[in-house]
User: Which sequence fits this backbone?
């Protein structure tokens, strides 16, 4: 079989299990069913919203300006989210996709780098339509460019009237 993006064509077509290294063990992650996949993506979106909210600074009101509240609290909240909570979100999402894996054992033996690499595999399986979406978006850009490059052509009058020569 021909390789594409590090995966065999057959593996890509039939969604065979992904093998990931966590700690000193290799594990297989099987693709979820359609319904399980939908539920997992909903969980992914919920976690993403929590992360996004943490990075959007609160609106400053006249009262907060008058009180001379600084933005240190918002900044430290965002840093706590990024460095403390976000790795937990990644682990939660990874193990939600692969619930049969022994989470406690893996968390004691694996590194966060290994978890991130394994999570990237889960992301590819969790969003199988991403490549298709990229293709559709690229085609829409090509179509848009083609439409913008078309210039209207002036056609001769069909009424038989001629333009006066000046």
Assistant:
């Amino acid at each position: 079989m021909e390789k594409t993006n590090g995966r065999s064509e057959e593996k890509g077509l039939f969604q065979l299990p992904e093998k990931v290294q966590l700690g000193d063990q290799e594990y297989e992650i099987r693709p979820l069913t359609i319904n399980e996949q939908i539920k997992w993506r909903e969980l992914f979106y919920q976690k993403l919203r929590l992360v996004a909210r943490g990075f959007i600074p609160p609106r400053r009101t006249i009262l907060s300006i008058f009180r001379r509240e600084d933005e240190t609290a918002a900044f430290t909240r965002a840093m706590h989210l990024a460095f403390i909570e976000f790795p937990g979100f990644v682990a939660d999402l990874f193990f939600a996709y692969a619930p049969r894996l022994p989470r406690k054992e893996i968390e004691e033996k694996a590194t966060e780098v290994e978890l991130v690499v394994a999570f990237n595999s889960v992301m590819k399986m969790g969003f199988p339509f991403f490549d298709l979406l990229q293709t559709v978006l690229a085609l829409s850009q090509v179509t848009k460019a083609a439409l913008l490059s078309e210039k209207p052509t002036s056609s001769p009058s069909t009424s038989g009237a001629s333009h006066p020569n000046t």
The longest strand covers residues 18-22.
